[in-house]
């Protein structure tokens, strides 16, 4: 039996030790006494669990580092292991991204970047070739034209086979200068253009008034700015007294769920837009309010309409708020989140499934249009307009019936 005096002395000693070490008994992990280190049972079990679960990874990494015939980059090995972990999930929407890949994702969702505002592609001759300058950007104002070959950026040679690298060099902080060396058909020598970068806004919305006062809005993505742009275009069309609205979602791969919900709320009355469920069965329902457009609605979709595009189409179809025209959509019924890591890398992962208002899970099947219309076979996969765009022509025909013309 330990006397009260000895117990008190022991308690005082323990308090002194833990105070000096700046730890508490509950958080005590290890304590060195002489040449021995004493750890708690919980700590022992924790590290034993690490060895059992990750020992194979550590062992193989160390073996390769020691025995491979060339010196290996250990950081690269770890990055590869992390990427492989995500790939093993076998979900194309759950991925690990290096710093560049993650920054590119953020750029796409924000809809803005620092640069000169040109769209480029690898040319058949191996040069970086301008597809088109974006309207009212430094590139357009500097006189860059479709077909121009960009040979150098700030004196550095660039090539079409390394397009991503070339684009990265042209991008930069707004207000900073960049010099392009351009080869133009018919020119006898290189054209040197000194351009100051600006914040470039990726335009995801465009609109016009078609025949018989039919409004037309084209959505190419759902980024952070799309909802505000859509609202402005919708207001402009309202002021022109449109009688009906065609929303074109063809080849729109989706984007932010929040943006999609905001746009759906402008078009739909009091109804469910979409609901999601996670692995635990937790359901989140998104609804629109009573306010909506007061004219007929037609949506254009095709096999390139995915994710947020399908959410909007599903809400319109199930709510009988409009007519869907085109071909069956892509069929992506999963919701992702993305998260940054402290070293600049990041990842996105699937967190839930989504369902249309009537409870349809469209992953792998897509949404069938109310009226199926295909483009002419010889024009599939191409940009079409005018009478060649049979899907739009059908949408106009249906809209004329709706508005009584």
Automatic annotation (TrEMBL):
<feature type="domain" description="PDZ">
    <location>
        <begin position="105"/>
        <end position="171"/>
    </location>
</feature>
<dbReference type="InterPro" id="IPR029045">
    <property type="entry name" value="ClpP/crotonase-like_dom_sf"/>
</dbReference>
<dbReference type="GO" id="GO:0007165">
    <property type="term" value="P:signal transduction"/>
</dbReference>
<dbReference type="InterPro" id="IPR001478">
    <property type="entry name" value="PDZ"/>
</dbReference>
<dbReference type="GO" id="GO:0030288">
    <property type="term" value="C:outer membrane-bounded periplasmic space"/>
</dbReference>
<keyword id="KW-0378">Hydrolase</keyword>
<keyword id="KW-0645">Protease</keyword>
<keyword id="KW-0720">Serine protease</keyword>
<dbReference type="GO" id="GO:0006508">
    <property type="term" value="P:proteolysis"/>
</dbReference>
<dbReference type="InterPro" id="IPR041489">
    <property type="entry name" value="PDZ_6"/>
</dbReference>
<dbReference type="Pfam" id="PF22694">
    <property type="entry name" value="CtpB_N-like"/>
</dbReference>
<dbReference type="GO" id="GO:0008236">
    <property type="term" value="F:serine-type peptidase activity"/>
</dbReference>
<dbReference type="GO" id="GO:0004175">
    <property type="term" value="F:endopeptidase activity"/>
</dbReference>
<dbReference type="InterPro" id="IPR055210">
    <property type="entry name" value="CtpA/B_N"/>
</dbReference>
<comment type="similarity">
    <text>Belongs to the peptidase S41A family.</text>
</comment>
<dbReference type="Pfam" id="PF17820">
    <property type="entry name" value="PDZ_6"/>
</dbReference>
<dbReference type="InterPro" id="IPR005151">
    <property type="entry name" value="Tail-specific_protease"/>
</dbReference>
<protein>
    <submittedName>
        <fullName>S41 family peptidase</fullName>
    </submittedName>
</protein>
<dbReference type="Pfam" id="PF03572">
    <property type="entry name" value="Peptidase_S41"/>
</dbReference>
<dbReference type="InterPro" id="IPR036034">
    <property type="entry name" value="PDZ_sf"/>
</dbReference>
<dbReference type="InterPro" id="IPR004447">
    <property type="entry name" value="Peptidase_S41A"/>
</dbReference>
